[in-house]
Amino acid sequence: MQSTIVMTGAGRGIGRVAAQRILRLSPDTHLVVVARGSRGPRLAAELGAAGRAVSHVTADLGSLVSVRAAAREIHDRLEDGELPPLHGFVGNAGVQYTNALTETSEGHEATFAVNVLANHLLVRSLQEQFAHPARIVITVSDTHFGDFRHNLGMVPGPAWQAPRTLARPGAFSEPHTAAAGRTAYSTSKLAALHLVHEYARRLPPGVDAVAYNPGFVPGTGLARHADALSRFAMRRVLPALTLTPFATTRTAAGRHLADVALGAICAPTGSYVDRARVAGSSAESYDPERERELWDAAESLVGSPG
Questions:
Q1: Separation CA 204–CA 207 (nearest Å)
Q2: 115 within 8 A of 188, measured Cβ to Cβ
Q3: With DSSP H G I counted as helix, E B as strand and the rest as coil, what are the percentages for the chain, rounded to 5?
Q4: Are 100 and 182 in contact (CB under 8 A)?
Q5: What are phi and psi of 139, to 5 degrees?
Q6: Which CATH class is domain 3-302?
Q7: Extended strands (E) in 214-275
Q8: What global pTM score does this model have?
Q9: What is the Cα 293 distance to its own chain's centre?
Q10: Which of 18, 192, 213, 232 lies 20 to 30 angstroms, CA to CA, from 139?
């Protein structure tokens, strides 16, 4: 059965591995990659080199105007029959900055904008286009636990505040520091989990939402905004941790992401998939009142249909 999967973050790291595996295991899939600028055409050409069906839609995930335009383009292509029915969305793109002051053109804190609002806008804009069964997968992070076991002391735990505060630059203590940037990251991943739980309650039967945690994956592009020493450590030193249970290789993490997206890993809607198995996320991540508040704020911030 021919189907469409829309994917962000397919250009590098675990996303690239996942995209290649999706196309290999599901040859009837048309993969639509959402990418910035000239990366989209190049990525689509590379992934489709073996004759696979891959196309691109251009979007800057840090701009809601751009994301909305991309969603509209995908919607129109689905409506016109240019794309086969939509059965999946993989929100894998993510950013981490060295401060909590980086601002989008619309005035939102950039980590929250990319890791939370962009996914929400794409999901809500395409909600009526999903054909059953469909699966939405959002890449999260075990940094949302906030303890040494899950973050090895490298990333502070989340510091939850009112969603509209989180969406503004400077929400955390000493916002100009790298620690604040990492706090913004872990908090955004907690927010993504909250929204997955809310999607599970609100999306129609047959459209499942799953959170995927790849674990700590050194050597990806996540540290691209970090200082030179941190980038060196991520590329040259920390990959040694993949020989231990404390880290995951890009290949393994990408393989698991593809398997979650294709339903090869059985996971009920609202699940948290830790690498290759369904597990419990942090106690803090289960908070229906907070999740409703975040939903309402996200709806308002992105202008989604009510």
A1: 6
A2: yes
A3: 50, 15, 35
A4: no
A5: -75, 125
A6: alpha beta
A7: 272-274
A8: 0.91
A9: 20
A10: 232
